[in-house]
Amino acid sequence: MTGYANASTGALSAGENAADSTPSGLASVSIELRSVNSRFLDLAFRMPDEMRGLEPALRELITGRLRRGKVELRLTTREEAASGWPQPQTEQLHTLSRLEGIVQTWLPKAGALTVHEVLQWCRGSATAARPDDEATLEVARRAVAGLVEARAREGQKLVDVLLQRVSHLRRLADEARPLLPQVVARQQQRFLERWQEALDATGAASSVPQQALQERALNEAAAFAIRIDVAEELARLGAHLDEIERLLKAGGEVGKRLDFLIQELQREANTLGSKSAALELTQISVEMKVAIEQMREQVQNLE
């Protein structure tokens, strides 16, 4: 199921000052969560190496709320400074001056350091501030909560789509049921006609008693009618649709149970098509398979 959420320590609430949003001497942290469709839960973490120690806690936080989806967590940090410029220390400037003198002694043509180069070196050599672990986990909790809400909104839309497909399948089943007696009777009559043609062609009608031939023909016709009867398949399909509708309305973690029921729907539709002895039933079977395949694609997105 797709979704997106983000949170950071720099997010201010009403009446909060920017200077109070991140503790002094620490870095701010921002977390983005992206989720796309997947049958299983697949986690990917994009974060600085110095923050890797929090990965187990972050993984536990996500797995505690999500069951499906390919989820990517992107964690970025930024050191908070009032001016945004590094503050060179006396020791740093002495070191730079000494190194510059050594270089120019050996390389007289080397240019002098610029102010920008000095500031960049001081920024890089300074000890990077690290966000507070508890603050980072709190940001992660807010991001996960936002992702869950986003996925819930999309899940409700998917439920509406699936319920529409369930209604469509019910209509198709209702269209098929009145056709069954007509199809069975028509096929039985056709079978008896062909049976009689075969007897006449082989001359068996003159050597076998007529009553025995008639009984055998009726038995074969009845067996043929049983083979092409799809009432049982339609009844099972209706039961599966009832269970799918019940699960969708109940909510919760229903994705894997719906996967199984969709497979059963597909099996019943395939059997209906293979037993079909009339063009009308074949067309209904094809439409059912299309609707079931659409449901299967959507069900894989549900939690």
Q: How would you describe this protein?
A:
The chain is of the alpha+beta class and 303 residues long. The protein has three domains: 3-83 and 132-149, 2-Layer Sandwich (Ribosomal Protein S5, domain 2), CATH 3.30.230; 90-125, no CATH class; 153-299, Up-down Bundle (Butyryl-CoA Dehydrogenase, subunit A, domain 3), CATH 1.20.140. It is built from ten helices and four strands; from the N terminus they run βββαβααααααααα. It has a four-stranded mixed sheet with strand order 1-2-4-3, covered by helices on one side. Helix 1 links the parallel strand 3 (41-46) and strand 4. Helix 9 (255-275) packs antiparallel against helix 10. The longest helix is centred in the middle third of the chain and has 44 residues, at 133-176.
Give a quick summary of the entry.
The protein has about 300 residues and is of the alpha+beta class. The chain has helices at about 55-65, 90-105, 115-125, 135-175, 180-200, 205, 210-230, 230-250, 255-275, 280-300, and strands spanning about 5-10, 25-35, 40-45, 70-80. It is rod-shaped.
